[in-house]
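ARCHIVE CARD
Drawer: 12
Card no.: 0347
Subject: one protein chain, sequence and derived structure
Cross-reference: see card 0346
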Amino acid sequence: MTNTIKADDATFADIVAGETPSLVDFWAEWCGPCKMMDGPLEELAAEHADRLKVVKLNVDENQATAMQYGVMSIPTLIVFKDGREVKRLVGARSKAQLVSELAEFLG
């Protein structure tokens, strides 16, 4: 993943604090549907880098942040703006579905 940002418990708050919306992918290595999201998220990050940060957070390695935001199943995608949650998507999506559901952030 070259266009996505890797976050952890220590860096998470700083990464999502900005005015640019951050789409955070809460995922785990063992999660098949999470792996299916890698391609669409990488494409989204490349095509919309000027409007949206795409961030990956491994829930197994960063349980404090996952618990803080009540992530109960993965993949969970949460959009943050100015450090606050503004939208949540649970479950795998195609790129077309992501673009449609995130249209308000993609301009």
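Annotation on reverse: The chain has a mean pLDDT of 96. Residues 6 and 99 are 21 Å apart (CA to CA).
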